Amino acid sequence: MADAWKQDDKEQVSPLAVAAVVEAPTGEHDEATRWPSVPYLRKRQCALWCCGCCAATLLLLGLTVLILSLTVLRAMDPTLTVNDISLPRFSAEPGDFGGDSLVCVNATLLADLSLRNPNVASFRFGRSATELYYGGETVGVAYLPEGKVGARRTSRLTATVDVLTTRVARRMNVTPEMVTSGTATVEFTSFTDVSGKVTVLGVYKRKIEIAMNCSLTLTLYTFRRASVTTNQCSANVS
């Protein structure tokens, strides 16, 4: 029994185990944990370089589109000009001196026009009209069919106007002497309207309307022959 108590006393007075002490890392290990690794730095540098290249590319593309939209892709104004006006048909003879008309005139005016398109895309226009006026009254109308002018090309248009002779003769200040031996001049004005649209790359669209006014002089020589001249033409684009 005494031996058992002695054994218990020995077990109770045995010293506790000393706790293990972990030394803090020092030297090279401390430097490795303080700075990022070389592969990480390379990946980060590559990502920054790629982002910079993408941003520069987008900026360059934006500047290119802006420059093109202000120069090449910008919808410019087409031009409408008169090349020539002729009289393919003309006849005149004395009328009823006691009536409203001293002369009977039959005339057809032929207008040769040029429509130039300076754009990089085609210009499509609808059905157009050319009206002839004398003394503020319409004395003739010619219609032009719809069409298309290619990019940076010029198309020729022809307008044939049959003059309403009764309206002209009623307003002409003609004497019997002019009919038999003199000359007379008739002042006309014409108005041509062309409406169309230019579409560049399916993105840039612009509706264009060309309005041209001209003044014409028809000279009658003893009412046997005649000539027509164009005094002035002005075109407005909107």
UniProtKB/TrEMBL annotation:
* Protein's UniProt keywords contain Transferase: no
Q: Answer whether the UniProt record assigns the keyword Nuclease to this protein.
A: no
Q: Where in the cell is it found?
A: Membrane
Q: Which UniProt keywords apply?
A: Membrane, Transmembrane, Transmembrane helix
Q: Where is the Late embryogenesis abundant protein LEA-2 subgroup domain?
A: 113-215
User: What topology does it adopt in the membrane?
Assistant: Single-pass membrane protein
Q: Which GO terms describe its cellular component?
A: membrane
Can you tell me where the transmembrane regions are? 46-73
* Single GO biological process annotation from the record: defense response to other organism
Q: Write the protein's name.
A: Late embryogenesis abundant protein LEA-2 subgroup domain-containing protein
Originating species: Zingiber officinale
